[in-house]
Every structure is written in C-alpha cells, then in structure tokens.
Write a structure and sequence with these properties.
- Helices cover 79% and strands 0% of the residues.
- By secondary structure, it is mostly helical.
- It has a single domain, classed as Hydantoin permease.
- Helix 3 crosses helix 4, helix 5 packs across helix 16 and helix 10 crosses helix 18.
Length: 439
C-alpha cells in the first residue's frame, strides 16, 4: 500500500494541485476535485489494482492473460503496453523537473532565497533553465537516485524506501503546516480553499478537477497494475484503494493550506500558476524568520514526493523486461535507466540549445512529451481498462478479486462502467480541444 501511495504522491500533489486550486477559483475547484476522487479516481484505481492482481504479471502480459481468460482479442494486451511506454516517456521529463527540485534544495541550504525579490526569483528560475550542463547534472542525479531504488526490487527497494519516505513526507509537511499556522494567514487560506463559493464553478474548473483526480493517483500508466500484482490475495482492494486515495488527497490539500497561508500573509498572487512553488514560495519563505530552514524543508518534501513517484513510472517496464528476458533486475534497471536518461537529455536541451526545435503542433520536446502522455496515453489507458473490466471480464472473476457485495459492488459497477468512462471521455475530449472547437 505504501509503494502504491508513493506512486500516487508526487509533484501532482505538491506542485500541481496547489496552483490548480489557485487558478480555478479556490474552494469551487476543491469541492469538485474531492467529488471526482470519490466517483472517478477510486473506482478506476480499484479496477487497475484488480487487473494487476488477477493478471499477476507486468501490465502487457497481465492484460494478455486476462484477455485470454475473458475469451477476447489479445490486442487488449497493448493497453498495458501503452501504459508502460507512457511511464518511460513521463520519467524522461519528470526526472528533469525532479532535478529542478534538487537544485532548489541546494539553493535553499545556501540561503539564496533570503529577502529575495520577485524579479530575482524569476531570474533564478530562468537562469537555471538556460544552463544545459547544470540541468543535465541534476537530471542525472535524480534519475540515478530513482534507478538505484528500482534495481533493489520491490521488497528490498520500493517497500523499504516508502516505509521511510511516506511517513517522512507527512512529518515534514506537518512541520511546514505548523510554521504556516504561526506566521502565515491560515484563516484566509482555509476560507480560500474550503468556503464554498459556487459562483466560481465553471466548466473549466469542473474539467480541470476531473482531469487532475485521474492523474494524481497515477492511473492509466500500469504502475498501479504492477503494485496490484504484488498485493496479497488476503488484502482488500477496496480498503487499499481508500487508504491510498485518502493519503494522496490529504497530502495535496494540506500542502495547499501551508502554501496559501504564506501566499496570503505576503500579499502574493494565489493564481500564479505553474511557477507558484518555484517563484512565489522562495519570496514568501525568504522574507520570514528561519525562512531558509523552512524553504529547505519544503523543497526536500517536494523532492521526496517526486522521487517516490518516479520509482513507479519505470517499475512496469522493468518488470516486463525481467519477465520476458534473461536479464537480472539490476541489468534491466541499467538499460532502461540509460534509455530514459538519453530521452531526458533532449528534454534538457529543449529549454536552451534546442528550444527552437518543434516536434508536433508547434510544441517543443518537453511540451510534446507532456501533451502526448497526459492528454492522450493516460486517459485512453484508463478508459480502456474501465471498459475491459466493466464489460468483458466475467462477473465471477471480478467478485473474486474485489470481494465486494451488495451496495458496495453496485457502487463500483455503476461508477466503473458508466460514470468513470463518461467522465474520462469528457476530460479526454476537452484536453484534445474538441470542446473549444465545438463551443
């Protein structure tokens, strides 16, 4: 459970969710997001864990055996294969962003953020992006940290790492939350995030909340399916899913409270967007007592969250290589790690030397990889898994794995076969710009 929680808890919680709350109206977004977790993300996560435990293999081979069991086309195996490929591609740019975080940890330790101005904060971030060798170094360090844990395996690497990292994440967060309560404007942050203001509910906020609920739990990329294959038969899929969803959502919302208490105390802009933690928080933390210490703690927190998620991105592909070749886990980790590193080099260069190179629709390498995975591969993978489980698997097999009865099974059935697919299709069409063209 901690391994899967580590997969879910990442930059999406600490970096993305807080800034999405800010740009989508605060409490209106939060309410829709929580509803989306309940009616979209939880049933889809239960489905993916169930498929993994039933298949007992890596995502591609698991879907192949499940398709055979359900007496349907073996082409369904490519649902798992697409998820594995998405994980590799995501890690290639995720590790670059993870490198940014490591760089900011060092900057915080060195006191760079002390009494920093808004202009200096922006210049610091832009200067980091303009230095390919520096970015390459941090990208390499972050990826090496990831592959060392993966090479040690699930019980020796993933579980032991998350047994330490997940509790440590919450410990650091609680320290930061206490700090924000003492020096920040917590009442303003609480009102901004949790006082319902339905006048701010817009179609954009609804679709953004639906999409983020899907992505924050790492659904559709096969990582959850792999962890499902490691889940014991006596473990409850429903309880496991609830534990992970509550842990993941709580961390994101508590981080939002800690951040916005500091933002409002310093009269900063809550809707600052993606630059919220890299440009806004250094200003807030750098101007406060013991700011360097808490800036260090905060970026260490972000770094741990990024690290635990990056491990899950590559694990499905490593599992497939081990199960289909004679390579050891260590050799599989080295080969795939080098592959990801090479793709990541192109991502690093896309911010400076190769910034004029466009791949698709006028987008650079970083944006192209981000759009391909987040707007196409993951939603499509989640949708197909829901359809496979809801319409093609035998009810007896589903009941054996889920262990649900009565209203609980009915809730899963309705949400997985109707609500979740419809919601994912809406998000999918929105992300592809279909609604913009129609309306």
């Amino acid at each position: 459970m901690l391994a899967t929680a580590g997969s879910a808890i990442g930059l999406g919680n600490i970096w993305k969710l807080p800034y999405m709350i800010g740009v989508n109206g605060g409490s209106a977004f939060v309410i829709i997001f929580i509803a989306s977790i309940i009616f979209l993300a939880i049933p889809l996560m239960m489905t993916e864990i169930m498929l993994g435990r039933r298949g007992q293999k890596n995502p591609l081979d698991a879907m192949k055996s499940l398709a055979k069991e359900a007496n349907v086309s073996s082409l369904w195996s490519w649902v798992g294969g697409m998820g594995m490929l998405a994980g590799v591609l995501i890690l290639s740019f995720y590790s670059v962003v993870g490198g940014w975080v490591l760089s900011y940890v060092l900057s915080a330790v060195q006191g760079v953020f002390s009494n920093i101005s808004a202009e200096q904060a922006a210049n610091n971030f832009n200067n980091l992006l303009a230095q390919p060798l520096t970015l390459l170094m941090w990208h390499s360090i972050f990826l090496l940290m990831t592959m060392v844990i993966v090479a040690r395996g699930v019980s020796e690497g993933l579980e032991k790492a998350n047994n330490i990292l997940i509790p440590l994440l919450f410990a650091i967060l609680l320290v930061l939350l206490g700090y924000s309560m003492s020096v920040g404007d917590m009442s303003a942050a609480f009102t901004f995030m949790f006082s319902p203001d339905f006048s701010k509910v817009t179609s954009v906020a609804i679709l953004s909340a639906l999409g983020h609920a899907f992505f924050t739990l790492s659904l559709g990329m096969g990582a959850v399916m792999v962890y499902g294959s490691y889940l014991g038969k006596n473990e409850s899929i429903g309880q496991t899913t609830l534990f992970i969803a509550i842990l993941d959502t709580a961390l994101g919302l508590l981080t939002g409270l800690a951040i916005y208490a500091l933002v409002f105390a310093n009269q900063l802009e809550p809707g600052a967007g993606p630059g919220l933690i890299f440009q806004t928080l250094p200003i807030a933390l750098g101007s406060m007592p013991a700011g360097n210490l808490f800036a260090t703690l905060f970026f260490v927190l972000v770094g741990f969250a990024a690290w635990t998620s990056s491990i899950s991105l590559i694990e499905p592909a490593v599992a497939w290589v081990i199960e289909n070749t004679k390579l050891s886990r260590i050799m599989a980790s080295i080969i795939l790690g080098l592959t990801v590193w090479l793709i990541g080099v192109s991502v690093v260069l896309s911010f400076n030397e190769w910034q004029d190179i466009k791949i698709a629709f006028g987008l650079g390498i970083f944006d192209s990889l981000d759009k391909l995975t987040s707007t196409v591969m993951l939603p499509l993978g989640g949708l197909l898994m829901a359809i496979f489980a809801g319409y093609l698997m035998k009810k007896q097999h589903i009941a054996e794995e889920l262990g649900l009865h009565g209203w609980a099974f009915t809730f899963w059935k309705v949400t997985n076969t109707i609500i979740a697919p419809v919601a994912v299709i809406i998000v999918f069409l929105n992300l592809l710009g279909v609604f913009e063209k129609l309306f």
